[in-house]
Amino acid sequence: MQVSRFRREGGFSLVELSVATAIYSMGLGSLSLMMLLAVQGTTEARFETTAAVQLSSLAEMILMTSDAAGHYAFSPASGVMACDLGNACSTEEMAVWQLETWRGRLAAELPGGSGLVCRDRTADDGNTDDPACDGEGGDVIKVFWQPQANHDDPDSPPSRQVLRLP
């Protein structure tokens, strides 16, 4: 008498394989989203750092040429004479040249970057189009730029950093 033995083959069914693939795909999708958010956060941190460095840089220039401090608050005309490479400049010309050079660095290093020096009692307000300088209070330096996450949306508010001068 022969007894037939049926052996059950081990393995995965198609349903089990589909479920495992779906779970794996969701995990990879979540990982890629997390990496994208990390890159955006790093980019914004770089812009914040750049703005802080540029604020400090202009503040030091203003403190070094304190007799021309009032000239930093005016928007100079284009075509300013270069005051580097040994060119003799008055303190007013030096202030205008430094301000224009600083603004050029802001425009190059920050998306939509701009900045100004003004007197403002409430310094933590304003935007690129209207810096909201009231002409009272102490001297402040304001830097504005368009956040990378909202770079395509012109109605999004700009990022801002402000430094009050002593």
Textual characterization of the structure:
The protein has one domain. The chain is 42% helix and 13% strand. The chain has two helices and three strands; from the N terminus they run ααβββ. The chain has helices at residues 14-64, 91-109; strands at 114-120, 138-145, 159-164.
Number of helices: 2
Helix fraction, binned, reads: 40-55%
Beginning-to-end CA distance, first to last residue: 106 Å
Q: Tell me how many strands there are.
A: 3
Strand order of the largest sheet: 1-2-3
Strand percentage:
5-15%
List the helices and strands and how they pair.
Blueprint: H1 14-64, H2 91-109, E1 114-120, E2 138-145, E3 159-164
Antiparallel strand pairs: 1-2, 2-3
Helix pairs in contact: 1-2
Give a brief rundown of this model.
42% of the residues lie in helices and 13% in strands.
